[in-house]
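$ ./design --mode recover --in tokens.txt
reading tokens...
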């Protein structure tokens, strides 16, 4: 059973990014203390990258033993390493190049310049194998029990590269290739719902009024095929971390204030 969502509303996107970063530091410190390691799934987009930049700048940043953190991505555009379109490229500039991460624990999704060449299906299978190799018996899943899995949300309700009605929303393999994405570029690699739902905590990050309808819909109980964000739920906790603009269409009693 996955956790029903909680909604935390911050005044603006800057405060949202700082608060999410502070929350992430605390969660990673706790995870490393409890298990000796942590698994963090990163996302891209404006607010996702802003959170990573605030994580690098956070006063308590060095409380995290970054060499014990495994970094994963929930989806990636199938373009070469270093391409500005890649979530990995933004994450390296915002966070990974600024902390003492263990390169062996940074797990980018392969692109067309990777070992499988221009074969996103094989690249997705390779990433699934890498995830499987990082699991422990207590995970009870083909992917690790991620401590925090961050996701953005699209205006039409997509998360990762799971778009409404597309084949990937029906797929139970851990990682799949996505072709014909309605948002360019058309070819991507993405986690599926089972991988997302294996996370202990799923955080959906949203800022701006263009996300308000999708946030309201995702919290109103539609099916995940029609609105993939409705299927993004963590095993222990699901947080919608949003700003006031993204909360504009929520019922007044649904959100509670975050750090202002």
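writing sequence...
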């Amino acid at each position: 059973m996955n956790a029903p969502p909680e909604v935390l509303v911050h005044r603006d996107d800057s405060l949202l990014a700082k608060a999410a970063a502070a929350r992430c530091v605390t969660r990673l410190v706790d995870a490393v203390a409890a298990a000796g390691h942590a698994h963090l799934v990163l996302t891209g987009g404006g607010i996702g990258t802003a959170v990573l930049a605030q994580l690098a700048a956070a006063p308590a940043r060095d409380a995290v033993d970054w060499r014990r953190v495994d970094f994963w991505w929930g989806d990636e555009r199938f373009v070469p390493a270093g391409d500005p379109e890649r979530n990995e490229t933004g994450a390296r500039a915002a966070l990974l190049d600024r902390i003492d991460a263990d390169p062996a624990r940074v797990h980018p999704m392969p692109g067309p310049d990777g070992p499988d060449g221009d074969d996103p299906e094989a690249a997705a299978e390779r990433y699934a194998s890498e995830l499987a190799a990082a699991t422990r018996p207590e995970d009870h899943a083909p992917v690790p029990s991620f401590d925090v899995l961050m996701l953005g949300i699209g205006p039409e309700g997509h998360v990762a590269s799971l778009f409404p009605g597309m084949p990937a929303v029906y797929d139970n393999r851990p990682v799949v290739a996505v072709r014909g994405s309605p948002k360019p570029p058309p070819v991507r690699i993405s986690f599926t719902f089972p991988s997302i739902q294996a996370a202990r905590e799923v955080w959906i990050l949203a800022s701006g009024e263009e996300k308000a309808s999708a946030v309201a819909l995702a919290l109103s109980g539609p099916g995940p095929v029609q609105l993939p964000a409705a299927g993004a739920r963590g095993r222990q906790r699901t947080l919608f971390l949003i700003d006031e603009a993204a909360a504009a269409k929520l019922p007044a009693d649904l959100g509670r204030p975050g750090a202002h």
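exit 0
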